[in-house]
Specification:
With 339 residues, the protein is mainly α. The chain has 2 domains: 289 residues, no CATH class; 38 residues, no CATH class. Helices cover 69% and strands 3% of the residues. It is built from 11 helices and 2 strands. Strands 1-2 form a two-stranded antiparallel sheet. Helix 2 packs antiparallel against helix 3 and helix 2 crosses helix 7. It is globular.
């Protein structure tokens, strides 16, 4: 029996293609955002600066963070290699964005230097977005594997961190917090000694974790599990409207009951739809390359199910029948006793 081929040459090629698409989008985005009357970018990009199109670009950029979080938490391989690759890809994409800023504006180097402190937030942001996915992995035993892989998904008892991993995670959290402090110093953030800035950061991280769970969990389920694709897409579509309405409700309450304009609702809804679409398309491309989501004790992959079905229906030759062998042994024992 031959393995069913994937649409792309290999799983690694699918991931490389996704990263290249992300890099291209990040390089183009500054040219769109900095276009228009008096802008340094060519006027031809000004037509793309409509609020709806800008929302689409920003939604795609947020989807990149969600995809990298999904891969860092659920992908196969060593934990440290996944985290390191995730951070390196994040730095690469940020570098593409900043290089584009420098290229499009004569003062771009100064602009990029002024916001370079954002890079120090990357480790902490990555861990924050991954936390709901790690809880998902521990609770359900889900993991991303290559389609048709015979490698077993870890059982419930094997999902815990070892001692060395716990020490490494503690070290990484400490390094991430230290880099956040460096970023706050570069920003000149006040109230660091009083601790209020850390309280605000903790609240922001909690909101980011909830936001990550809302988008990454159903997207991973829909994009990498074919049998639940329709359910996952329906959940994401409903979330787009619910999250948009909830954000506008909170904004209305915070502003004293003033209702935001309908244009704000439209742009925010387009942003969420773009985020969901870009995230799902990335996961569909990964699935086309051979990546799927498997659950501990769940339904096996089609290729493995076919192998199990064939082995169940295969019959051993009569000469290898267990009952025939036992009968022959009994006959030989009876002959020995008669002799």
């Amino acid at each position: 029996m031959s393995k069913s081929p994937s649409l792309l040459p290999s799983p690694a090629a699918a991931l490389a293609g996704i990263v290249c698409i992300y890099a291209f989008c990040d390089f183009v985005t500054p040219w769109v955002l900095m276009s228009g009357p008096g802008g340094p970018a060519p006027a031809v990009f000004a037509i793309l600066r409509a609020p709806v199109l800008v929302a689409i670009l920003l939604g795609g950029m947020f989807a990149q963070a969600g995809f990298l979080a999904i891969w860092a938490a659920l992908a196969p391989g060593s934990l440290w290699i996944r985290w390191l690759l995730s951070l390196l890809v994040s730095l690469f994409l940020c570098g593409c964005f900043m290089i584009s800023v420098v290229a499009v504006d004569e003062n771009g180097f100064t602009r990029a230097s002024d916001v370079s402190w954002v890079l120090f937030f990357l480790p902490a942001a990555s861990l924050t977005l991954q936390l709901p996915l790690w809880l998902f992995r521990f609770a359900f035993g889900c993991r991303i594997v290559v389609k048709g892989s015979t490698e077993p998904v870890e059982s419930v008892g094997a999902r815990q961190f070892g001692i060395l991993q716990m020490m490494g995670v503690t070290t990484m959290v400490a390094v991430a917090l230290a880099l956040v402090r460096v970023a706050l110093d570069q920003m000149g953030a006040p109230d660091q000694e009083s601790g209020m800035v850390w309280v605000r950061l903790a609240i922001f991280c909690l909101i980011a974790m909830v936001y990550s769970a809302l988008w990454t969990l159903p997207a991973a389920w829909a994009g990498l599990t074919p049998e639940y694709e329709g359910t996952g897409c329906a959940v994401i579509a409903i979330e787009c409207f619910m999250v948009t309405g909830l954000i506008l409700l909170i904004a209305s309450i915070a502003s004293g009951g003033r209702v935001p304009p309908a244009e704000v609702f439209g742009v925010l809804l387009v942003f969420h739809l773009s985020l969901a679409a870009a995230l799902l398309c990335s996961l569909y491309l990964a699935r086309a390359g051979g990546w799927v989501l498997r659950r501990d004790g769940g339904k096996p992959e089609p290729i493995m199910a076919e192998m199990a079905e064939e082995s169940a229906h295969d019959e051993l030759p009569q000469s290898f029948s267990v009952s025939r062998i036992l009968t022959k042994i009994d006959e030989e024992a009876a002959q020995d006793e008669s002799q």
